[in-house]
């Protein structure tokens, strides 16, 4: 059972039953605006802010994570921070030149570390599957991309010099400050089957093997969301992974879980697990900050009140700022 405090729900009183994070169908016209910020023990999350004047950190002891996802070859202003987290779909079809452009853009940003994973649109990075399926996505046979060249863009000397770390079912130890803690990070590109894109898995026959390989870490990056958490496709269908939800709830309980994939779900939720991990004992136990960082405007928030298209990474789809205290909470 999950207990959640989100931008869409008020905190429950002690006498109230737990609020479930799993969201049912919600008519598009009933969606409230995103709250500008959320705060919890040792952390503040900014969802809506002035990009020309981002909010200050709560204290010098907080480190700033800036979260992006589903950029699909677009570039836009990104607030400064210590660490940039990108949870996939750097490109739309995975052409070499599009990876080069995306990584060049990320390299130009001031964040000392940029941790990146793939998404279902980054086709060539799913090696083996790509060689057997690329013709479905490319106009001509000669359009097969050089996977080694793409991996060199992501992991070669230039990427390393820019602080770019590409994770594909891998862990990474992150230390931001000399006197700060070490954060364990894991990145996974997989999502449940949808249309036969890259890194798709069958929810019934393959989910356990893929998802249960994710270790217990402080920061979890996945391309897709857990079931019921910021995962409403067109705001009416919960599309996240049940197995990922179970793994996060029962085993991982990360401090921060960032994902994208479901563009309409952009936002943040904070879940308290309770002292025994089931959310029944109030707000004293560990908490996970869930961020859907998708920057591609989609759904009812993709247009202004006047009916105009929201620009890429515009209001409602901005990079999400997460300020977390750089030490263990007692």
TrEMBL record:
It comes from the Eukaryota. Residues 1-31 are annotated as: Disordered. Residues 78-264 form the Calcineurin-like phosphoesterase domain. One of its GO terms (molecular function) is hydrolase activity. PANTHER family: CALCINEURIN-LIKE PHOSPHOESTERASE DOMAIN-CONTAINING PROTEIN, METALLOPHOSPHOESTERASE. This is Calcineurin-like phosphoesterase domain-containing protein. The lineage of its organism: Eukaryota, Fungi, Dikarya, Basidiomycota, Agaricomycotina.
